């Protein structure tokens, strides 16, 4: 199958239905088949990684995002997903690094970062996010 839309539908379908391992398996097959990725694909894969809470996948996906031209600090949709994933994987410093690198921030980015801090017992750190 060479259609990015079909592959992305499968990846996001698994991710949205709490089947993160299957989402990552399909994504790996997608890459192996030579199909490129877009921001929708990446958000689905990042969501699967967040569900697993597996930091090892976080770096793999970050590398793919960078090589595909979707640097999380330059794309608010991808950046918000990465902040959520890094927070859920226990990589709060990486989440904050993405947040601070964003030139354009919206309510979703702020919410993701604040929830990440709160999730790890750093509720007072939210003041640094909003200042």
UniProtKB/TrEMBL annotation:
Q: Which organism is it from?
A: Dillenia turbinata
List the PROSITE patterns. Answer: PPR (PS51375)
Q: PPR repeats located where?
A: 3-37, 75-109
Alphabetical keyword list: Repeat
**GO molecular function terms attached to this record:** RNA binding
The answer to whether keyword Electron transport applies is: no
For this chain's UniProt record, which GO biological process terms are given? RNA modification
What's the protein here called?
Pentatricopeptide repeat
Top-rank lineage group of the source organism: Eukaryota
Task: Extract the Pfam families matched here.
Answer: PPR, PPR_2
